[in-house]
Amino acid sequence: MKKIHYSIAILGLLTLGCKTKLVSQNEGVQPMSVVGTSANWELVNDLSDEFNTDEIDWKKWYKTDKLPNTTGWKWNNEQNVKLANGVAELTMRHNDNNQADGETYFKSGILKSKETMVTGYVEARIKGAVIDVPGPKNGFGVCPSFWLYSDFDRSVKNGKTIYCEIDVVELQQFDWHNGHQDDIQDSDHNLHLVKMEKGKGVWYRPKKHPETQLNKFRMPDDPSKNYHVYGCEVNEKEIIWYVDGKEIARKPNTDWYRPMNVTASLGLRRPFVKFSNNANRAVNPLEGEEAKKQLAGMPTSMYVDYIRVWKKR
Question: Which of 52, 145, 197, 273 lies 20 to 30 Å from 89 when distance is taken between CA atoms?
Fold first, then answer.
C-alpha cells in the first residue's frame, strides 16, 4: 500500500482496484523528510503523480518527443511504460534477435515531466531493477534513476550555466572510485554541469569535482528488491539529499538554477555500454562474454510508486 504523509487530519479512504490508499480532501500531503517539519510546502500537481489511474497521464509526461538524447539505448514508452496496481513500471528490453537500431540494442522507458522547476522539493518512492544472474555480477547492467535536468542554452555568457543536472538518486551503477568497487547497496547522488568558459561549453563531472558534486551513500539493503523514498531539496543556497526521510548529503547550489524537468528512467550501464566522450556508448551484447551472461536477466523493470514535487508557500 502506498505510504502517504499528511499535515491535516481530514482523510478519506478510496479503493482503486485491489489497492487501498488514504486520500486527502485538500492535498495536504507533505514531504517524508524532516524538511517538512520546518517549512510549509505546497504540492505542485503538474509535476506530481500518484500513478493511481488506469493509464499514464501523458498530459504530465512526455511520451515520444523531447526525451533526453541517449547513445547507448533508445526510448520506447509505448512498450516500456505501464501502470499496475498504482505503480509505474519502467522496463528495459533487449531488441528482438539483437536487432541494431541506430547502433543500439536496447529500448527502455522514461517519465519526463512537461513542466519544469528551479527550486523546490522532489520525492519519489522507488524500487530498483533486478538482474538475477548466477555469479558475482548479479545486478549489473542497468541504472534506475530519479533526476532533474535542464535543456542546453549555448547562448549564455561566460561563467554561466549551459546545462545542469541533479541526480536525486542513481542505483546499481557499480562504480569504481578511489580503489573501491561499489556493490548493489551503494547509491549515487551527484551533480552534473556544463558551463560556458571562454566561449566553449565545459563539462564538470562529479569525480573530477568530488567536494562540490559527488555524493555516495550506503543503502541499508538491496534497493533493487525493496522500496525506498528518495528526496531532494533545491533552494537558492543549497542542494540537500534525503533517503527514507533522513538527510544523507548537501552541497552549495552555485550553478544549478536553470529550469529542470523531473525525470524517472531506467538506463543501461556496463557491460551493455561503455562510457566515453561524456556519454554511455552502446556495446553489442553478443560480442562479449560478460554481456551475454547479463542478458539472462533481461527484460527488467524499475518501479515508481509515486513522484511528488513541492514548492514553498
Answer: 273
Cα three-residue angle 90-92-94, rounded to 5 degrees: 155
Fill in the amino acid letter for 267: G
Residue 298: half-sphere exposure toward Cβ, Cα within 13 Å: 24
Q: Which CATH number fits domain 11-312: 3.40.50.970, 2.40.30.100, 2.60.120.200, 2.60.120.330?
A: 2.60.120.200
Can you spell out the DSSP letters for 68-91? PP-SS-EE-HHHHEEEETTEEEEE
138-173 pLDDT tens trace: 889 999 999 999 999 999 999 999 999 999 999 999
Q: How far apart are CA 107 and CA 91, in angstroms?
A: 8
Single pTM value for the model: 0.90
What percent of the chain stands above pLDDT 90?
Answer: 80
How much of the chain, in percent, has pLDDT values that exceed 70? Answer: 89
Q: At 2, is the pLDDT very low, low, confident or very high (cuts 50, 70, 90)? A: low
Q: Are 189 and 146 in contact (CB under 8 A)?
A: no
